[in-house]
Amino acid sequence: MNKIWAVSYYTFRESLARKTFIGFFIISSIVLAILLLAINIDAVDGAMAGLSVFGKEARGLEIELEKLVINIEVGLATALFTAGLFFSIFATASLVPNMLDKGNIDWLLAKPISREGLLVGRYLGGLMVVAFNVFYLIAGAWLILSLKTGVWHFPFLLSGVLIIAIFAVIYAFMVFLGVSVQNSAVAIMGAYLIMFFSPMLVQRDRIYALLSSKIWQWLLDVIYYLTPRTFEVGAMVKDTVLLEPIASWAPIWHSMALGVLFFSAAVLLLKRKNF
Amino acid sequence: MNEIIATQNLTRHYNRGRVKALQGVSLRSEAGKIFGLLGPNGAGKTTFIKILLGLQRPDNGTATLFGIPVNDPGARAQVGYLPENHRFPEFLTGAALLDYCGRLSGMRDKQKRLQRAEVLLKRVKMWEWRNTRTKKYSKGMVQRLGLAQALLHDPQLIFLDEPTDGVDPIGRKEIRDLLLELKQQGKTIFLNSHLLSEVEMICDEVAILHKGQLLRQGTVHELTTSDKRYRLHAHVGDAELLQQVRSRVSAAEAQNGHLDVVVSNVQSLNDVIDLLRQHQVLIQAIMPHKQSLEDSFFQTIQGTDASDLNALFDVNKAEQEANV
Questions:
Q1: What is the pLDDT of residue B309?
Q2: Is residue A52 within a helix (H) or strand (E), and if so which, with residue range?
């Protein structure tokens, strides 16, 4: 366990040394600074008495304080789910292929650590750095908004958990691709393809009408069930913050089961690989 | 016998059997020795080391380190490895890299890791550079750091793949001294080097690998000393006597007051001595012919001892032609 933790810790440090994560962190910090300094909300007995952005008073904005906070949080959660995941995929895609590079893997595998231990450590390290960045923004924004308005909206924190969970699934898929083809670009493309096709696959009932053969419908179903349901989880993130009832938790459980499958396949592949 | 490395019929093919990297290699190495693995490029040396370290799996055969099968990570607990053309994480400093390696090798105590890192960084003359990122290191510095990481957890068996690659002559000498020091401490060192003179200087035992086959294994003394070639310090001026000598041995050449003979066994050598003494020839000394490891290596790679000696003395040519 100590060795896996060492791999995770140094993967975390390696990720922090990358400019993408630094960029992510800087953007998050700017957003937090704007929330902290630029937005001033005057709240009286739970109602918004006045709102100013960058010192300019926003007039004619008739909105409840709680609704305003929720709307800001929905905006942040949506931005994190799209741009945040985009950044994270880009920044973590090379972690596994780099580790498997000739010259790098030789000295690592010569240490008394199992291959699965090495991969688990690498996976957890990448996940840790993304979780750190997501929670830095989510928890920071939540704290600032709560302190400023007195509206303590806990479901916003849950949206962070959902974002991390779906990233963990996509990252497991990238790890699988990374071990299979040892190429960061392929891992990035694979992850973006999943995110790109997910909204279409949800609408596959409508696509059926355009397909001539049943085989294509069946194929579409297979693809749908074999890919993480990122679009539906995205909708769940929004619903969670908006306090809308979640119709089904199946998309997240299904995606997480696929994540376990992808990661297990990656481990099996790595164990069979010759370097 | 305290066997550290043992392989049995190790076989590894690439490209669906088209490239035979290893063909049934059986090798054993005992504790406390410096073992050199020699062979031209593509001989299978790196494949052999990679199988021992669990980086590759053999198609056939078995390999153990300390009696533990090599596919068990526990077999590598007492192993240090300096790979050829290694690449360390560039974001880490020398000291941080050693800390990472220590943790991966199971050194839980941070204080011990730090102490050991200090000793080794000073030993390989990298202490001043400990807080510099490895991306700023020269090739020689990376090699020194690589050596330090291989020795960090005080392993009993150390695999070194071209350890002096990119290191200046002074550094090479220092590394050789370090290896000899490690040997004195009872460590076993498995050295893969192209520098035959270096191998000859420090190795106790050598194996020659060629086209995936183990051609020879023995001590450096055994490989450099022939039991078939002798130099007799004696003046043989009589052509008829020389002809008689030649009839008793595989090859013989007399020049500058000495007689070089190639014999098939010790009995033949004694027959020659008896013959010379019968003719009142004074023998001042009899010495087995000693050659450099490089000569021995080339002889082994190019063919059998006899065929090379034939070329050397340029005799038996006519005989061979007649036989053909």
A1: 41
A2: strand A47-53
Helix, strand or coil, per DSSP, at residue A173: helix
CA distances (Å), A246 to each of A131, A254, B18, B124, in order?
23, 15, 59, 62
- Contact list in B for residue A6 (CB cut-off 8 A) is 100, 103-104
φ, ψ for residue A246 (rounded to 5)?
A: -85, 120
Residues of B in contact with A102 (CB under 8 A): 85
Strand B213-219 with B205-210, pairing: antiparallel
Residue B213: closest CA among B4, B34, B31, B12: B12
pLDDT category of residue A192 using cuts at 50, 70 and 90 = very high
For chain B, the first-to-last Cα distance in angstroms comes to 47
Encoded amino acid at A25, one letter: F
| 3-class state of residue A62 by DSSP | coil
Mutate to test the interface with B, among A107, A115, A116 (most CBs of B within 10 A): A107
At residue B212, φ and ψ (nearest 5 deg) are 80, 5
Q: Is the pLDDT of residue B199 over 70?
A: yes
- CB pair distance less than 8 Å for B76 and A104: no
pTM: 0.82
**What count of CB pairs under 8 Å joins A to B?**
80
Query: In this model, does residue A250 exceed pLDDT 90?
Result: yes
Q: Say what the ipTM of the complex is.
A: 0.83
Query: Cβ contact (<8 Å) for B77 and A112?
Result: yes
On the question of pLDDT at A63 being above 90, the answer is no
Q: How far is B86 from chain A (nearest CA, A)?
A: 4
Does residue B231 register a pLDDT over 80? yes
- Tell me the per-residue pLDDT of B232-285, one tens digit each, with 9 for 90 and over: 888 888 888 889 998 888 888 888 888 888 888 888 889 999 999 999 899 989
Q: What is the pLDDT of residue A186?
A: 96
The yes-or-no verdict on residue B293 having pLDDT over 90 is no
pLDDT at A58 over 50: yes
Tokens of B143: 């090699």
Q: What is the mean pLDDT of chain A?
A: 90
Amino acid B314: pLDDT: 40
Please report which confidence band the pLDDT of residue A45 belongs to, taking 50, 70 and 90 as the band edges. low
Task: Check B91 against A106: CB less than 8 A apart.
Answer: no
A141 within 8 A of A73, measured Cβ to Cβ: yes
Q: Which of B209, B203, B224, B188 is nearest to B26 (CA)?
A: B209
Query: Exposure string (b/e) for A251-270, b if CB count within 10 Å is 16 or more?
Result: bbebbbebbeebbebbbebb
Q: Are B260 and B289 in contact (CB under 8 A)?
A: yes
